[in-house]
Amino acid sequence: MRWDFVVVTVVGLVLSFAETSSGGITSSYVHITQGDHKGNGVIVSWVTTDEPGSDTVLYWSETSGVRLLAEGFHVRYKYYNYTSGYIHHCTIKNLEFDTRYNYVVGIGNTTRKFWFETPPKSGPDVPYTFGLIGDLGQTYDSNRTLTSYESNPAKGKTVLYVGDLSYADHYPDHNNVRWDTWGRFTERSVAYQPWIWSAGNHEVDWAPQLGEPKPFKPFTHRYHTPYKASNSTSPLWYSIKRASAYVIVLSTYSALGKYTPQNFWLEEELPKVDRNETPWLIVVMHGPMYNSYVSHYMEGETMRALHEKLLVQYKVDIVFAGHVHAYERSEPVSNIAYNITNKECTPKIDQTAPVYITIGDGGNIEGLAKNMTEPQPNYSAFREASFGHGILKIKNMTHAHWSWYRNQEVNSVTADSAWLFNRYHISSKESSVVAS
């Protein structure tokens, strides 16, 4: 007799009964993200406030119904005068692709049940829809953005999040209670579909005056990423495959110079991308390389000077960023011709270069960045200081459609949209962006 099967079955039955029982709520919030490199793993994270409780996740696919258990672990941290709850992280591995799973966290009569869908297996013509949100915060406008995204008929399946989450550092003593309230606010989406995390400046939380000299402390305790699966040495930069997209996440607030771990990793990572398996190469970061707003103008110049040549060389399709509290879409643009003697230091339309999209317009607490540089640069295709979210629909290996939705529109009417053409699979002689 297989005793491991018996144990799993008995525990599963207990949890199965518990999920239908009445009782309290064991978790302050639940969130998920991708748990491996290729897309059939999920990291489930949740918080228990009064006691550790269980580190176990019960899960089953809707096709088989066979109930399985995954074991995780929990951590706590202290930040100045705040002590976190018990933060649980559990990685579910070897899931079936393109399958809906139910999962349960908690024990006894304090369980909570959610679900998620795994992506299709990676392939050149696999369609997939991403949502794009950044600088969300937890304000009235934040709620409008998340509500608009949730109700969008385009139905994003995974959010690429470009940084700045809770804005806890905006409050006195970096009030970490704001991390808990942000977790509860976003649970309604991120417990059901993975959000792919990029850290922004508001995640640094470096406060030596409070006795907190370690950067990114709350963020790295609360939001785990599958960085080891892509041979990264830090949870702040990593890569994943999802359907027909290869997503590289960078950290604009970590060391990024020539002899840094992040730069070494990026130089080794880009040549690994198989554009015949995952034709769409997407980079996600917080600080934009191209920005024509007065707010944070030229702040991304260091990263652009260091890494833009790599992005053009390896034919990155789109670079998503936040930080600037507004929206902007560029033409395909590069500024790599400058060699200190030729005076060619003006960005130029370049059909071999990425399209840069700034979408730091989630809601935040600091307001919109309304002042723009004038005249509008020729590489800036569209810009507007309004709150909103984006949808990227990958159609096949050559075509994707981008839409931006401002919050003022009640029925998710697009305020800006464009067809994007794959840098690798479309000849540079063809037009790479067509506004629609």
From TrEMBL:
Cofactor(s) annotated in UniProt: Fe cation; Zn(2+)
GO MF annotation terms: acid phosphatase activity; metal ion binding
Keywords, comma-separated and alphabetical: Glycoprotein, Hydrolase, Iron, Metal-binding, Signal, Zinc
Known catalytic reactions: a phosphate monoester + H2O = an alcohol + phosphate
Signal peptide: 1-20
Domain Purple acid phosphatase N-terminal: 30-118
Gene3D superfamilies assigned to the protein according to its UniProt record, in alphabetical order: 3.60.21.10, Purple acid phosphatase-like, N-terminal
SUPFAM superfamilies given in the database record: Metallo-dependent phosphatases, Purple acid phosphatase, N-terminal domain
Domain Purple acid phosphatase C-terminal, residue spans: 353-413
Cited CDD domains: MPP_PAPs
Calcineurin-like phosphoesterase domain mapped to chain residues: 129-327
Top-level taxon of origin: Eukaryota
E.C. designation(s): 3.1.3.2
Family: Belongs to the metallophosphoesterase superfamily. Purple acid phosphatase family.
Protein name, per record: Purple acid phosphatase
Organism: Hevea brasiliensis (Para rubber tree)
